[in-house]
Amino acid sequence: MTRLVLRPAPAVSFTLHRRGVVVGVGLLVLLAVVFVGALCIGSTSVQPGDVLRAVFGIPTWAGKVVELRIPRTVLAVVIGVALGLAGALLQGVSRNPLASPDVIGVSQGAGLAATMVIVAGAPVAVLPPAALIGGLGAAAVVLAFGRGNRFVLAGIAVAVAVKAITEIFIVGAAPIDGQRAQIWLIGTLAGWGYDEALVVAIVVVALIPVLLWAGRALDTSALSDDVARAIGVRVGARKLVLAIAGVVLAAFATAQVGAVDFVALAAPQIARQLAKAERPPLFCAALTGAVLTVVADTAARTVFAPTQLPVGVLTAALGGPYLVWLLVRRKR
Amino acid sequence: MAGRRGLVLGIAWLLVVVAIMLSLGVGNLGIPLGDVWRAVFSPDDSAHTLIVRTQRMPRTLLGLLTGAALATAGVLMQSLTRNPLADPRIMGVSSGASLGVVVAIALFGVETLPGYVWFGVVGALASGFLVYWLAARTGSSPVTLALVGAALNASFGAVVIAILTVDAGTFDEFRFWVIGSLAGRPTEVTVQVMPFIAVGLLLAVISARGLDALALGDDVATGLGSRVAATRLTAAAGAVLLTGAAVAATGPIGFVGLAVPHFARALVGSDHRWLLAVSVPMGAVFLLLSDVVGRVVILPDEIRAGVVTAVIGAPILLLLVRRPKLVLA
Amino acid sequence: MRKFATVLAAVLALSACGTGTTPPSGDAAQQQQGQTRTIKHAMGETKVPATPQRVVVLDSDKLDTLSSLGLTPIGATVGADSPTLPKYLNLRNVKTVGTLQEPDLDAIRALKPDLILGSKFRQEKFYDELSTIAPTVFTELVGITWKDNFLLDADALGKKAEAQALLDKYTARAKDLKKTSQKVSIVRFRPDEIRVYGPDSFAGIVLKDAGVPRPDRQLLADKKDKRFDKVSPERVQEVDGDVIFVSAYGEKAAQRQSEVTAGPLWTKLGAVAAGKVFVVDDETWMTGIGVTAANKILDDLAAHLS
To answer: Considering C109, C139, C173, which residue would you say is the last residue of a domain?
Structure first.
């Protein structure tokens, strides 16, 4: 495997694998295609030529139609990136392909916190920080109870318990608050657009330096911790930082659009397969996440039209069989 | 030894009586104990009597039946898979049953329990097969099995939600088929599910001896003259029937089948006849008490029994997960 | 291999777009003819056309509004649980454009409306995008402010005077209703619960207008939300009154209704013994929330309250 090592600054280095780069470029192209495709599909079909004209501001009859679809699709891309990264970080750090924020209770923790906020009638601005705290709290509990390959199992237990507690809050709330919480909890991109995308995008961009700085930790995660320590990498601290970064990304994404399952679980592994890497490559996982989310959201809004399926339901329905397949493939 | 186990059994059934009394006496409407007593033993025409007899009694009976069914299914599953984490819900069998029932109601328009319980059983069977097959392929470590179950849960659960979203079901309806409840079940359901649970319990009892032998390992068991395949089949049939029936009656309720067998094992050891004898009343008690707690904890609102068992059971699962070695104690 | 897959995906995506409808000839924005009026509403101010012809409504109360004013919307959302339009309104040829919670913006766009009427309570987050399709007017709350909503929507439609006249007629009729001292209980069966309706619900407001007294339990004095309250099946006796009007929302609920009303607890109710229980249409008492529905409630009251 040919690789290129870049050293832009002292103590900062990262490795580019040729195959990873090729896959990355391929995914970018795929994303562009899927993005345009999403803008084509809907109650009014639009030819790709017109879509491209509309995107670049050239006047066309389809201008308004496409304009309507762009914010939602952009949001899908951003959410997909955030979730793909979150999954890649958690899976890379724990070396477990099942470690995903929705499987181990982080999304549910964010959901519980959000429900408590809504039911208490607090202002909407409090939701994202509350969701973040909820997600981190759940992750902390999971880490406390699950070691090694039990980590995911502990996560499942926490996810179940947290969901049950969320239900208690909803049932006990005034009907109007309970309704609002329930609507919020179902992950959906409908009605959301640039504002939400911006929040998540800022978080992703803000974390890029962190990702680069700790990049080496992930590469050595693929080796055993002993070897890593022998090389001199401060394994524990870097792993923790990356795990927290993953939780932050997932919590912010969930805070904006509700729980969108499966993307954080599958995207990293799909990217890993494509790039034939030892651990999920961050960049490719992000792109894969974006592609998956755009496709899922497009399907969710068109397949049963005019009934709109929340994208979270669609991705969860896909996520299960994928998870089964993943487990079957693991050689034990 | 039999003495101690007999004592445990006696206490378990005593607790059943206590649980029944609580379930009849406690509810959304505060009914004085004297009225409850009268309602049971010398019924009159008063509103309180009617409430106890037409609402609390069927609900109590339902809780007893399905609690016993779930605990027994848990024993069978844990022994069959030699997995201390097995439980109808954790292994995804409950959600398979749920999917079966939802398909029956939403797609085939089957309205009543005697009709859709069969779909529930088939659904339980299908997911049981899946888990078993996947276990064989992946080496069936307890953790993997639980993960496979979680994956099946996610799949089936999401399909249930998708069907009901598209089929214009109300949100309340499909919440029921994701986490179950003893409330609001028409009284016929309690009566109609009895034969299924009875047969399931019978199958469990029949397979008890064989399961003892199986615990020693397939080769030893065969050497002892036990018919391994027949035992496996009977036990599996029992587990599937019990789960399918319980889910059809109350929706999927988890953790009863996980926690109760562990307590039972700790108290009476692994002789399956004692295990089953104790798990039946203990399962009934666990579910019934969970239901009672759900009725009063956030008055005047009610929490579904499945939610209470999850809140109690998940920490138990977490504690089990912490154990250094995951084997059937 | 991957390149091929990418190309394949591209081809598939493009072919999906290939069979599009021919581009429509006009754009809704071409309604430059005629004046516009400015309407102040829950989301700010909007300029609407003087006489809107193609109206899309996003909430059930607005269906009643349009129908009462003799208009028909070209598109409407439906509830997730009841995919058809209310029968009491007799509306035909109305295209479904998604659900109350998630309107299908694409479908709305395809209808080329010149006015969109929606509800801030339900669709707040869609407002900006809807505004890019057509002038959009949102009412703030549902039910409790139905009369103000009616007037606001009518204003947007250019029929404020007619609406006011209809409301005045309704109010006069309500006042003229024969006075009664009978306490009226409103009970509704939903698939999962039993509800009683209080003074802030639509039916409760109509009863208040007609001067009809309510049982204490249904005044919901100590509740934050005075629209309705859940009743546990153990407390069925609490729904009693001198007269009971019962409705059921959907088929499952109707089953629940027959179960409970056949039960011994129900038959013990005073109103049942006196034969004063009347089943009414859920659409007009609960989901209609408009002046036509209100008049139908008055019809029921006149018929059954002696």
So the answer is: C173
